[in-house]
Request: fold
Amino acid sequence: MYTIPEPLQTTTTNDWAFIDELRSEFHRKPHWTRYEPRPDEVDIREGVILFKAFPDPEFLLETAWHDLERFMGDIKVLIINVETYTGNKKLTTIEAIKEDQGCHEGYCIEIKKSQITIKAGDIEGIRRGIYYLEDLILKADGPFLKSANIKRSPWIENRITRCFFGPIKRPPFNRDELMDEIDYYPDEYLNRLAHEGINILWLTVEFRDIVKTDLV
Reply:
């Protein structure tokens, strides 16, 4: 019986080309086939105005807002600065407001003429709402969204993953993913995980490395 030779296992990351791909910017491309809106649809072709008024004292939503801005750039939709808006264009507003949805991470997206409102009782609900709004736009057949009132809540509270190429700190190499020279969680990889709904990372570390004590 012919046995296929087993490929050599690498011990360095020098030839791991997929790491560069994980670091690369997360781009999304729509596949639109229609460019005229229906009467009950929101038209985002002329641009959008973002209202980031949701309470966020620790700026935890900055990455999500930045991702939405990048997303709009990817799909060629202009973001207008509300301070310089002159009112001579038909624009859609995207606003995040605080409104309890009954559970952590729950959110509501209300879509109506020239206005999209993301409602949530907490920061993570707004984050999930922003990412889901991007998904709604991507799966549409044109730069339009049908009027709707969408309510969503998490089915699983803790959604855990670990880096698929991270070390596990045991012989023969004993490499530590927090102290190693390799960045196992580049920003764009974390961005991809966030879009998949991941909210917990499983890290393999030794307890004595993360807790100080005078005991030997």
